[in-house]
Specification:
Order of helices and strands: HHHHHEEHHHEEHH
Strand content: 5-15%
Low-confidence stretches: 1-7
Largest sheet: 4 strands, antiparallel
Number of strands: 4
Strand order of the largest sheet: 1-2-3-4
CATH topology of the largest domain: YaeB-like fold
CATH architecture of the largest domain: 2-Layer Sandwich
Number of domains: 2
Number of helices: 10
């Protein structure tokens, strides 16, 4: 990124960006500057489409489940007392995580069906090269769809706090516990200044 580009980025108004992506309309005044910085950085770098995160916030505000696991309150430090909701991160890591989860939960239904058909026919059969695309499709798209139907897709985290019946959206984080101390420090340094109730909520957790 050139110096000129950096100067252009520095002039972007966070509230205007929040309006442009729909966040201000969905959760007016209940999102942090830290979250906006995360979303803006992801958009400018091409690493993350903010629409995916805003969509999950919209579903949460509407009380709709969506395709991901239900929001969970963190029970262990350093994020104890806060909540997280999953969203689909761009790129391969989240996809790979759900493929692995789908294999653990459902196995390979297409392959298992082929075995059953062979057993019922009393024949020894082998997978043909023509079967491979259907097998791969079932492992990837089929299991992804099964997880979505069970509202069991996994992703990275939208971190939020609950206060007086409303959600306050603070930042995004990954499953990697090694990063959670840094995330908590950012919340302490930045979000607690924006939302005064947050320091007491975290102290009481």
């Amino acid at each position: 990124m050139s110096l000129e580009d950096e100067q252009d980025v520095s002039t972007i108004d966070g509230r205007e960006f929040a309006r442009a992506i729909g966040l201000e309309q969905i959760a007016p005044g209940r999102y942090s500057a830290l979250l906006i910085a995360n979303l803006l950085g992801g958009a400018l770098s091409g690493i993350q489409n903010p629409a995916k995160i805003v969509r999950e916030i919209e579903l949460l505000e509407a009380g709709e489940a969506g395709q991901f696991k239900q929001p969970i309150q963190n029970r262990h430090p350093p994020l104890k007392g806060l909540w997280h909701k999953h969203y689909m991160q761009d790129g391969l890591p989240s996809l790979a995580m759900n493929i692995d989860k789908g294999l653990n939960w459902y196995g390979m239904p297409f392959f298992e069906q082929k075995i059953r058909e062979a057993e019922e026919a009393g024949e020894l059969r082998y997978l043909e090269p023509a079967d491979v695309p259907a097998l791969v499709d079932d492992i990837v798209r089929g299991n992804y769809r099964r997880l979505a139907e069970k509202q069991a897709l996994s992703g990275e985290w939208i971190i939020f706090a609950k206060h007086e019946g409303q959600n306050y959206y603070l930042t995004v984080a990954t499953h990697d516990k090694a990063t959670h101390d840094r995330v908590r420090q950012q919340i302490d340094d930045l979000c607690c200044l924006e939302f005064p109730f947050l320091a007491q909520l975290l102290a009481d957790a």
